[in-house]
C-alpha cells in the first residue's frame, strides 16, 4: 500500500544554508566591497561584540521556536490522537455516516505474510534501519525504508460487524511485534492480527447499501491502535502536556537569565 525511502530534506537544507554562509564569508574576506551585502557584513565585523551579545540571546530563542514548531507540526497520528480523545465510541450497529470511532475485535479476511517472521496477519508496518557504530561500539539507527501493507478486514463488537477499507491506514502507538537484525541492518514489523481488540477512527460510509469505514477525506485520518494502550495514553497525556509546558517556561527563564 505504501512504500517509501524517507530522506531528511530538512537536514540537507540546513547543511546547504550553513555551507552557503561559510562559502560566502570566505569570498567576502577576499573580495570585501565587491561582494553584495558588504556594508552589512562590515558593520557586523566592526561591532562584533555587540552582535555576539544579541546572537547569544537570539540563537537559543530561534532554536527553541524551531523545536516547538517541529513538535507542534500537524501529522495524521496527532490528528488521530486528538480526534479519538473527543469522539464518543460508537456501536457498530448504530453508526451514522461521518467521522466515527469504533472499538472491537479484528476479523481477518485475506491473510498477509509479514516480511520479518512470515507471520499470518491482517496488515503490517515494516521498517528497515541502517545500523551505525561509533568508536566505542555504541549503535545508532537510521530508518531507510518504511512500508505499510494491509488487506481489507472487518471489525466487530457486541452489536455487529463492519468492513474496513484500509487504504491509507496508520498503525499508531503500537509496539514492534518482531525485530530481526544483522551486522548492518535492523528489520522491524508491527502486525495487525486476527482477534486483536483495537480502536479505529475513520469515516463511516456506504456502498451499494453496505456500510464500511474508510479514510476520512477532510481530516486525512484512518488510524488504528490498541484499545488498552489508548486508555493509558488518554490518562497520562494531560500530565505530559503540563510537564512539557513547565519545561518550556523554565527553559525560557534560563535563557533570559543567561543573556542578562
UniProtKB/TrEMBL annotation:
<feature type="transmembrane region" description="Helical">
    <location>
        <begin position="51"/>
        <end position="72"/>
    </location>
</feature>
<keyword id="KW-0812">Transmembrane</keyword>
<keyword id="KW-1133">Transmembrane helix</keyword>
<keyword id="KW-0472">Membrane</keyword>
<protein>
    <recommendedName>
        <fullName>RING-type E3 ubiquitin transferase</fullName>
    </recommendedName>
</protein>
<feature type="transmembrane region" description="Helical">
    <location>
        <begin position="239"/>
        <end position="258"/>
    </location>
</feature>
<feature type="transmembrane region" description="Helical">
    <location>
        <begin position="12"/>
        <end position="31"/>
    </location>
</feature>
Amino acid at each position: 500500500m505504501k512504500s517509501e525511502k524517507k530522506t531528511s530534506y530538512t537536514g540537507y537544507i540546513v547543511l546547504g544554508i550553513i555551507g552557503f554562509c561559510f562559502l560566502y564569508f570566505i569570498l567576502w574576506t577576499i573580495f570585501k566591497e565587491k561582494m553584495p551585502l558588504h556594508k552589512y557584513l562590515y558593520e557586523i565585523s566592526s561591532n562584533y561584540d555587540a552582535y555576539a551579545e544579541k546572537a547569544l540571546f537570539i540563537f537559543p530563542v530561534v532554536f527553541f521556536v524551531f523545536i516547538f514548531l517541529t513538535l507542534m507540526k500537524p501529522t495524521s497520528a496527532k490528528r488521530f490522537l486528538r480526534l479519538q480523545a473527543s469522539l464518543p465510541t460508537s456501536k457498530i450497529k448504530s453508526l451514522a455516516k461521518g467521522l466515527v470511532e469504533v472499538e472491537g475485535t479484528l476479523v481477518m479476511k485475506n491473510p498477509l505474510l509479514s516480511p520479518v517472521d512470515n507471520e499470518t496477519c491482517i496488515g503490517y508496518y515494516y521498517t528497515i534501519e541502517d545500523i551505525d557504530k561509533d568508536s566505542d561500539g555504541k549503535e545508532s539507527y537510521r530508518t531507510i525504508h518504511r512500508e505499510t501493507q494491509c488487506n481489507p478486514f472487518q471489525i466487530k463488537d457486541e452489536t455487529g460487524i463492519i468492513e474496513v477499507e484500509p487504504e491509507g491506514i496508520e498503525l499508531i502507538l503500537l509496539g514492534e511485534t518482531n525485530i530481526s537484525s544483522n551486522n548492518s541492518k535492523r528489520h522491524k514489523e508491527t502486525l495487525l492480527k486476527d482477534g486483536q481488540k483495537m480502536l479505529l477512527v475513520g469515516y463511516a460510509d456506504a456502498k451499494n447499501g453496505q456500510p464500511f469505514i474508510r479514510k476520512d477525506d477532510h481530516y486525512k485520518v484512518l488510524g488504528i491502535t490498541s484499545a488498552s494502550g489508548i486508555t493509558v495514553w488518554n490518562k497520562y497525556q494531560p500530565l505530559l502536556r503540563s510537564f512539557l509546558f513547565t519545561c518550556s517556561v523554565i527553559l525560557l527563564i534560563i535563557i533570559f537569565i543567561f543573556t542578562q
